[in-house]
Amino acid sequence: MSDKNKAGIYLAWRTVTYRSVVLMIMAVLLVAVVVMHFALPQVTDAGVQQVSKLTDRLLEGIAGEAGTEKASSNTWVTANYSLPLEKGDVVQTSSEGMAKVVFNDGTNYTIKQDSLIVVEENASNDKQQTSVAVTVSTGTVDLATGTYLQGSSSKVNVAGATAMLAPDSAAMVHNDPKADHHEILVKKGSGDVVRNGETVHLADFEKVSFQAESGRMEKAKEIGPPTPISPANMMPIFSADGGKAVDFSWTPMANAAGYRLRVSRNPFFSSTIIDKKVPTAEVEVSGLSEGAYYWAVQSYDQNGKESMESEKNRFTIIAKGGDTGQLNLELDPLIQHGHVIEVTGKTEVGGRVMVNGREVPMVTADGTFHYFTPPLPVGESVITITAQNARGGVNTQQKKVVIQ
User: Is-cis flag, bond preceding 231, omega within 30?
Assistant: First the structure.
């Protein structure tokens, strides 16, 4: 359990076993046999063989039980991209850790620092209908639902409330049990929140908040964010000297007194290299070195109240060199899981990969990658896989699949 103090993501499960009770009984019996051996050696010698046989049977029973149990108490393991999640599994992040969980229906959860979620359901039926349910026990989670089929469901539980989100929706869930503050915000799409017989419908930038003892939920409208324009998402920016002045722009917002621009090296914005306020809907930033960046913007009014954060765009500054030759991209045969396609392959070390415009969350140190597409519609679809390296090399392959 001491490993929980280290930065990272951990998975836990709980089971119950009587193995320790059996072992304690065996220890008591052993002590009793030793005492009787010195008091009545002739009697106990005849019974030792029977005790030995009984012990063997008990040990075999314990061994059989051990083969079916994961652990006798809470057991934590370091999570990785290929670790499957089952009903009852727990994902916890430390104060320096963050996690992304992707379900087969395309729903994904970004688990912020100091957060804990429990997987309540992760199932599908023979009609490819999926059912995903997660409880946010503490902390903050950003989530986006996939384009799942009719009859599927995606639910989030928090402090006695259940949010049922529509396909292609995005939301933020915050649970602070110590401060008794609980909040569900829909950023895109729609959802219904049910608590104590009350149902509240949420649309874009609407939220509900409540306390444990409050009889009703409070609904409020948040200020919508600007829409990022440039640099566009996934845009490469080539620079002759590895440093580049970048022009940022976004849609102007009515009644905005100014805007807050943030730029980070990671998509979670756990640290930022630029955090500045500007009066107009565009600004030039210089001195950015080679590499990948993420940016987002907010507006604020005369009272300093900030809007919701915009979508995060990613761009890459690439040093323009003489050789930007095509990089290696090897694809394994596609694997179909109903309406979901599993894409695996290998690219150059340090490269990045996109599938149908969505970035593969993790490319391993040797360049291998693994990705599940969102559910695809019935009929023919094209899977486009693009790899890119820091030298500007690009390799794109397309595969056709037919969903029946």
Answer: yes
pLDDT above 90: residue 158: yes
Q: How far apart are CA 399 and CA 401, in angstroms?
A: 7
Q: 263-292 pLDDT, tens per residue?
A: 999 887 888 999 999 999 999 999 888 788
Here the contacts of 208-211 (C-beta below 8 Å, separation 24 or greater) are 208/161, 208/183, 208/184, 209/181, 209/182, 209/183, 209/184, 210/159, 210/161, 210/182, 211/180, 211/181, 211/182
Sign of CA dihedral 351, 355, 361, 366: negative
Please write the tens of the pLDDT for every residue from 105-136. Answer: 778 888 988 999 999 998 888 888 889 999 99
**How many residues are listed for the chain in this entry?**
404
Say whether 309 sits in a helix, a strand or coil: coil
For residues 156 and 162, is the Cβ–Cβ distance under 8 A?
yes
Per-residue three-class SS string for 381-394 = EEEEEEEECCCCCE
**pLDDT tens digits for range 225-257:** 999 999 987 777 777 655 668 999 999 998 899
pLDDT digits (tens, 9 = 90+) for 288-330: 887 889 999 999 999 999 998 998 888 878 766 544 456 889 9
Using CA atoms, how far apart are residues 369 and 359, in angstroms rounded to an integer? 11
Do the beta carbons of residue 142 and residue 170 sit within 8 Å?
yes
Distances (CA, A) of 295 to 79, 173, 248: 27, 22, 9
Tokens 């809907």, residue?
281
